[in-house]
Structures are given as C-alpha cells and as structure tokens.
Amino acid sequence: MSQKDTLENIVISTFHEMVRKYLDERENTRELWKAKGKEVVFVHELCECAYKRKLRLKFPEVENASFFSPRFLVGYFIELAVKSLLNDPNEHPVFKELVANGKHILVYGHIDALIDGTPVEIKYQTDLQGVPHEHHILQLKLYSWLMNSTLGLLTYVSPEGIKIFEIKNDLNDENVIELIKQESSPMWREWECNYCVFERFCEKSLTYSGDSV
Ligand code: SF4
Fold first, then answer.
1. pLDDT digits (tens, 9 = 90+) for 133-168
2. pLDDT tens-digit series, residues 36-51
3. Among the atoms of ligand 1, which is closest to the Cα of residue 193?
4. Which structural domain range is residue 46 located in?
5. Ligand 1, atom 5, residue with closest C-alpha
6. 48 lines ligand 1 (CB under 6 A)
C-alpha cells in the first residue's frame, strides 16, 4: 500500500469512526435500554426539532451521509485536540432517569470533557459570533444538570478566534420534563429548517412556507 493510500484510509476510517460514535453507538444504547423498558432521549434531541427523531428512523442514510463532510471532520479533530490538551481522552456518558408522559425516560448525554466535574462543550465554528447560540446554551445546561453542576464551559474554536463562555445552569428536573413534553417541530423556527438534512423529506418544514426568516 502506498503512503498516499495509507493516509486516505486514515481519513476514510475517521469518517466511519464519527458515524460509529455519533449514530451507531447511540442507537445501540437506545435499543439496550428499550429492552429494559426504558426510553432513551439524548441531550442533543432535546435541543432540536422533535420531528427529526421520526425522520431519522425513516431515512437513516440521510443523516449517515451528512457525517461525510470535511467540516465535521475538522470539528472532530478539534474536539480530539482540546481533549488531548486537557488530558481527558475519555468519553463521558452520563444519564438521569425521569418520568414524563407516563414513561420512564433516561436523559442521556455524552460530555466532551470535564474539568473538576464541570462540563466542557467544544464547538468548531467557521464564523465566530459575539454571543453563544441558544441551542448550544441549552445543550450545556442539560449537561450541567446531568452532572449536578451549577456551571458549564462553552468553548468555540474558529479560524476567527477562540471564545469560552461560562454558562450558568438554571435547569431542574421539572424544566427538563417540560422540555421532553414540548416536542416542538421545528424547535428553532428562525433557522432550524434551513440547516436540516431532512428538509427535503419533511412536510413540517418552514423553509418553503414563508414562515422562516
Ligand atoms: S425540516 Fe424543519 S420541521 Fe422538518 S425535521 Fe427538519 S427542522 Fe424539523
């Protein structure tokens, strides 16, 4: 095998590793707990349109394909680099059990890194905005709630700069139960459909209705 082939294989296997980590493993976790009578809701699912969960099951290939993107690869490499600098190479799966809609639900999160029990979320952005995005704030608050932490650190890494925001956690069990019950589709009306990989298959999309900004 040539050196070029070796390098190409590393890149291709990294794409497959992302699919394994972010899609396959999560679905395996869901199935594992389903067999024990518990429903798993992942933190990222509480920060996005609820209808995506249904379309994900209908069109798994669509989301799979979206992972084969150089942008995702760069984000993944940055996450690995920051974790390595923090000397924290491990995964941090964490969950809490709640009862919502009469069902036992495990709210399950994978935290990028921990500093003395404080969750750290690492985001790669091509553009650096002045304030954190609302869905990233919610995601980090949920991680802090899972860790019983009053604070989380939201870290943006971008070619334009690096910003770290301290996000105070004000969520409690009742707030999270409400969030589970909410099931908004889309959750973020101003922009979510415009960036959604399922948009072409979705009858709820606001992209063509004139509702989206
Ligand atoms: S297109 Fe909009 S409503 Fe449809 S799944 Fe995506 S985010 Fe949800």
1. 999 999 999 999 999 999 999 999 999 999 999 999
2. 999 999 999 999 999 9
3. 2
4. 14-32+39-201
5. 52
6. no
CATH number at residue 27: 3.90.320.10
Q: Residue 196 falls within a domain, yes or no?
A: yes
Q: What is the 3-state secondary structure (H, E, C) of the chain?
A: CCHHHHHHHHHHHHHHHHHHHHHHHHHHHHHHHHCCCCEEEEHHHHCCCCHHHHHHHHCHHHHHHHCCCHHHHHHHHHHHHHHHHCCCCCCEEEEEEEEECCEEEEEEEEECEEECCEEEEEEECCCCCCCCCHHHHHHHHHHHHHHCCCEEEEEEEECCEEEEEEEECCCCHHHHHHHHHHCCCCCCCCCHHHHCCCHHHCCCCCCCCCCCC
Q: Is 8 among the domain residues?
A: no
Residue closest via CA to ligand 1's atom 7 equals 193
What is the pTM for the complete model shown? Answer: 0.92
Does ligand 1 have an atom closer than 6 angstroms to the CB of 187? no
| Ligand 1 atom having least distance to the Cα of 50 | 8
* Ligand 1 pocket residue status of 45, Cβ below 6 Å: no
In a domain, residue 208? The reply is no
pLDDT digits (tens, 9 = 90+) for 89-123: 988 999 999 999 899 999 999 999 999 999 999 99
What pLDDT shows up at residue 213?
41
Question: Ligand 1 pocket, 205 CB below 6 A?
Answer: yes
- pLDDT greater than 70 at residue 14: yes
Pocket lining: 152 vs ligand 1, CB cutoff 6 Å: no
Count of domains observed in the chain: 1
Q: Is 49 in the pocket of ligand 1 (CB under 6 A)?
A: yes
